[in-house]
Specification:
single chain; four-stranded mixed β-sheet; 14% strand
Length: 473
């Protein structure tokens, strides 16, 4: 763990568009007299910019877009050009011509963004419900990291600038109908042609978020032949638009309608060998590289959505009257709020501590999100976040009564939407052990027992770290 942060007064202030209900916002936004030592002026600037943009352009329409199954393409284009998307893309790959230039988020260059900027932006974007974020910016948040980490300079220059105009958009093709996200057992094959110039790909990918709008699919394929397990996996970037042999159809899920989850069928699809990311048969590590960071983002999303449930229920409880007094005047209702609140606040403090540790690692030349000491903490923070949002949503629906079960723009509509989406948050990460190789992968469907599996991962990770420190049984 990095040393304690040195207290210093903030040189800026949060957005004026704050939710003033109890526990509706993280404490760094609601305690100006005792500024947090974690946050500096650029953090507040990013929070203000994101809050203003989302409140103006996205939140008023999000439930309508979710019901429709997609955001308008004009809104999606504006969103990716707002600077709030693709903040992990280095400046060198942002459009540079004056006619296509994209503003950096709140004027902050990507190389100046730290884990606390990630924490803030993830928190703000998690105020968008349903699958609307995926409709606005695609699934490049999970489809692009393999290219960033393992792609060639030619690949990055060819694909990344187009993200900001929707010329390119990437989904991640790992999950399959029979094997789920068990990467080591995937069945989609890629065979080199006789002349060695292309891979011929055959197989099915299912629950692929963002596929309807994607130009490319970063795809896990089997190149090592039957029985090769994790050591026979490669990663290919497969063009989707107008490519012969590619077909897709939407998968109807209970939530995340605007996320575009789809079945993608690949029949003798010819992919240039230049689209291989990393080395052939070494794609397992390529796919698994970024999951501590992604788990952290999911944990932040759980925290924010729990706050949303708490805030909406608190507001309703001050309006609704039963048995001659307002709901909030009943002690049993106030206790519901308290039980959610102390969990949400403690969880946020842990997220800040993890961000501080990663920040310290990066500043000292360490591995950042890939530090072994971070993995167990992030895993448990994800588990805890899932439990909190489940509890918060349940208690909020109890407060709303029938209105918490009613879809649409009514008083309980946002909480009802979260109730259908939270299974995606709670069951989003699975650990698999195959062929002696441990791997973590984001799952796009409900996975039984995933919480227990992540908890097991955390215990084993922490025991390993303790032994490295000299702990002896």
């Amino acid at each position: 763990m990095a040393g304690s942060p040195t207290p210093k007064p903030s040189t800026s202030s949060p957005s004026p568009d704050l939710d003033l209900a109890p526990w509706a916002e993280p404490s760094y936004l609601t305690s100006p007299s005792t500024p947090s030592p974690y946050y500096e002026s650029t953090h507040f600037a990013l929070q203000r910019y994101a809050r203003s943009y989302l409140n103006t352009h996205i939140l008023p329409n999000m439930l309508t877009w979710e019901s429709a199954g997609a955001a308008p393409r004009s809104a999606a284009l504006s969103f990716v050009q707002s600077g709030l998307s693709f903040t992990d893309i280095p400046s060198a790959y942002w459009p540079s011509s004056p006619s296509k230039s994209i503003p950096h988020p709140a004027g902050i260059p990507p190389d100046k963004l730290d884990p606390f900027h990630l924490l803030i932006l993830s928190d703000e974007k998690s105020r968008i419900e349903g699958g609307v974020v995926s409709s606005l910016e695609g699934a490049s948040v999970i489809g692009v990291p393999p290219i960033l980490e393992y792609g060639t300079e030619e690949q990055k220059a060819r694909w990344l600038p187009g993200l900001f105009s929707w010329e390119t958009s990437f989904c991640l093709g790992v999950t399959e109908p029979r094997g789920g996200s068990d990467v080591a057992s995937l069945e989609t094959t890629a065979t080199r042609s006789a002349d060695g110039k292309v891979f011929v790909v055959n197989g099915l990918k299912k629950w692929i978020t963002g596929a309807p709008w994607a130009s490319h699919m970063t795809t896990a394929v089997r190149t090592g032949g039957p029985g090769s397990g994790a050591r026979g996996i490669s990663v290919l970037v497969i063009p989707l638009r107008g490519t012969k042999g590619v077909s897709m159809r939407r998968v109807k899920n209970s939530g995340q309608k605007a996320g575009g989850a789809s079945m993608v069928e690949l029949d003798d699809v010819r992919v240039p060998v230049e689209n291989l990311v990393g080395r052939e048969n070494e794609g397992f590590g390529v796919i698994m590289r970024n999951f501590n960071r992604e788990r952290f983002v999911l944990a932040v999303a759980c925290n924010r959505k729990a706050r949303t449930c708490l805030s909406h229920a608190m507001s309703y409880a001050h309006e609704r009257e039963t048995f001659g007094k307002k709901l909030v005047e009943h002690q049993v209702i106030r206790r519901k709020f308290a039980e959610v609140a102390h969990r949400v606040e403690a969880h946020w403090a842990w997220l800040e501590a993890i961000a501080w540790e990663v920040k310290g690692s990066l500043e000292n030349g360490g591995r950042g999100w890939m530090e072994q000491s971070v993995a167990g903490k992030v895993a448990l923070a994800k588990v805890q976040g899932g439990q909190i949002v489940e509890m918060a949503c349940r208690e909020a629906q109890q407060v709303f009564g029938g209105k918490g079960y009613e879809q649409g723009e009514g008083r309980g509509g946002v909480v009802e939407q979260i109730s259908r989406d939270l299974r995606m948050l709670v069951s989003l990460v699975l650990l698999f052990l195959r062929n002696g190789v441990e791997a973590n992968h984001v799952l796009q469907v409900v996975g039984g027992g995933s919480e227990e599996i992540i908890e097991d991962l955390a215990v084993r990770q922490e025991v390993m770290m303790a032994r490295k420190r000299g702990w002896k049984l």
